[in-house]
Write a structure and sequence with these properties.
The chain has a two-stranded parallel sheet with strand order 1-2. 42% of the residues lie in helices and 4% in strands. It has four helices and two strands; from the N terminus they run H-E-H-H-E-H. The protein starts with a helix and ends in a 6-residue tail after the last helix. It is mostly helical.
Length: 96
């Protein structure tokens, strides 16, 4: 227990910089469960740009669900996350 407390103390307090903590935005993935992934490209692109400006390290765009298992007409494109749809938002970069 003492060793565990020492590890926690070494990482800092609530007001210090914590490089061991990474930020992840799951707005599209989790929010899509409410609206069947019906987000506009404009919304997703603005969210992506805002995440970059805010220092969010990771963004989940949605799911790579099977188009054979799910009716494509019943969901927005972010249920399936085709490569070209993601590239239309993030452009050509090595972050994928």
């Amino acid at each position: 227990m003492a060793n565990q407390a020492k590890t926690i103390n070494q990482k800092g307090d609530l007001m210090s910089y914590r490089p061991d903590i990474k930020l992840l935005d799951a707005t599209i993935r989790d929010g899509g469960l409410v609206n069947n992934f019906g987000f506009s490209d404009e919304f997703v692109k603005e969210l992506y740009k805002t995440n970059i400006k805010s220092g969010v390290e990771y963004m989940e765009f949605g799911y790579k669900a099977s188009k054979e298992l799910f009716d494509v007409k019943g969901f927005g494109k972010w249920k399936f996350c085709d490569e070209e749809d993601i590239r239309a938002i993030v452009g050509e970069n090595d972050s994928l």
